[in-house]
Amino acid sequence: MRDTIDAKERIKKAILVGLPNTGKTVVFNNLTGEYNLVANCPFTTIEPKRSICRIGNETCELTDTPGIFKIHTYSRSEMVTRDILFSEKPDVIIQCIDAGQLKQSLTLTADLLEMDIPLVICLNAIDETSKKGIMIDSSELSRLLSVEVVESIATRKQGLDTLKDAIVNAINRPAKPHKKLTYSDSFEEKISSIKSLLPEEADHKRLKSQLILTSDPFVMAALEKEYDSNLTEVIADTADKIKKDFKGNFNLEINRTRNQWIDNITDKTVHRQKIALKDFKQGVASACRHPVFGVPILFFIIYIMFMLVVHVANTLAGWMEELLWVPVENLVTGLLPSGFWHDFLIGDYGILSLGVANALITVLPILSVFFIMFNTLEDMGYIPNLTVLTRRIFSKLGLSGASVMPLVLGFGCKTMATMTTKSLQSRREKYISIYLIAFAIPCAAQMGLNMSILGRMGTSAFLIVFSVLFVVEITAGVLLNLFLKKETRSCFIQELPPIRMPEPKAVLIKTYYKLYWFLKESLPVFIYAALALFALDKSGILMATKTFLSPVIKGFLGLPLEMVDALILCMARHEAAAGLIMNLIDAGKLNYVQCIVAVTITTMFVPCFANIMAMIHELKMKNALSMTVAINFSSFIIAGVLNWALLRIY
């Protein structure tokens, strides 16, 4: 027991912070040897990630935090990082700075210097700035801040050993006083007057005094929880009196002084060539978000993804079926005659046929091809540019720019996209965003599988389904915008990451982990879903359910009764339902119109269980379940109307 306690005492706390999309998670992966999802896109990290690891001769608990621009914040997502910095008393802070965003990052650096905690700066992506003819004097930057600055190319692990040494040195050596910025004498006097009122044991008193004087919306609430209410009243009254007597605006005074300090540092450390090569990649980024050129580029990307899934993934799935599944099926058929155990293993609801083979043979090859393409787009930085392209459409739905990124991220993972809505200040915008994410937006896995299914029916089927989903999504947004109570819309400025050539190795590693996580999470679900359907079938409950739903499934939707199985599987995993639809197509049980209707309703029907949990987390139980019921009801009505319309055309 004593050894365990001693081991815990030796664990040092290290916290990674920085602006969004500055390479924090790449550095975290490099230092810990673990893998967490990395993308050239904001909001990739939405919750803190922690790991115990060895850094040099120290055992550290390393925490990767969501992006933060500065300590004074109005964003609840940034508050997660600020609370960690204030409450956990780290032994060292590692600030990741994208070398191309040095000026923007120094605002956060100024706040971190105020905390008097050992600080190390990881100056990342220096290869990109050098290509642009920009050189940063890291030694001079270190001298001006009295902080160790480590140059890094995190994607290639260059500078990793030097960073580890800097972290160990910062933990073990007596901290040198940081060179903080100072304000005018009168302003410093007012900061000191608030600082003197804070209890002696309070941490970061100077920084908290500035936050109080600049009307930070969270700091007083935190003080009220921690200290006596009389004390916080005295502090609030004193701050109000100071602000009334002050001739000017505290925020403007701080910003003006900080901007001068930042300009002074960048003037001394950033050197630009007089002639720099034209940046072709930024021209590509500009075209991707251009209102005229951006739409054809988007359609071209979708077309390429569609063709790869239809012609490459489906061919790969066919080969895998011949090589892997057919021998297994023949073996089981030879060993077991028709009967219970035959049906249990390879029947319509067999654990091997509907469970294992559905996941490994039908779904996995399609996801492999689709994820390679999607991960390439993520690492290029295309996704944030897509949000700019689509912002005008979403603004018509009552959504600000802050809401656009979660919606676009929904095409990657609905659960993660739902969690990112915590950054939205408006409850109305959050409700609309979560509804639209859950409704007619297919996640990456479902998108790839839908492409594969519809590809068997031709390009026209793909165009019809996604046109319907687009119209349905826009209509739902317009109606929600019309009926929900209006609120003041917030301002939003989004940092656009540079377009980068993706590293093939990084794309393949990310694809591997996404497929690994898919199998780890989904394979048991596929098997359990097959077992559940098998039990329902043998008990007669499944047939009774099909008979009961026959007027809706066969009459209204025009689908075979086997689609009840797919709708049940949707409640577990949409990918399982997609695999079953492919089997129905191969068996000749779905025609052109039925295939379109089947894909449409399964895309809209029942968000996956993980997404429902995220909806409950963000909206609470009552709102989330009401939303789920509304989505399911709407999906049946829309699919039925679509079936009626298509039968009159075809």
TrEMBL record:
NCBIfam families: feoB. GO terms for molecular function: ferrous iron transmembrane transporter activity; GTP binding; metal ion binding. Residues 11-173 form the FeoB-type G domain. Its main location: membrane. One of its GO terms (cellular component) is plasma membrane. It is a multi-pass membrane protein. The chain crosses the membrane at residues 291-312, 324-342, 349-373, 393-413, 434-455, 461-484, 515-536, 548-569, 590-612, 624-647. Keywords: Cell membrane, GTP-binding, Ion transport, Iron, Iron transport, Magnesium, Membrane, Metal-binding, Nucleotide-binding, Transmembrane, Transmembrane helix, Transport. It is found in: Cell inner membrane; Cell membrane. This is Ferrous iron transport protein B. Belongs to the TRAFAC class TrmE-Era-EngA-EngB-Septin-like GTPase superfamily. FeoB GTPase (TC 9.A.8) family. GTP binds at residues 18-25, 64-67, 124-127. Probable transporter of a GTP-driven Fe(2+) uptake system. Mg(2+) binds at residues 29, 32-33. The keyword Cell membrane applies. PROSITE patterns: G_FEOB.
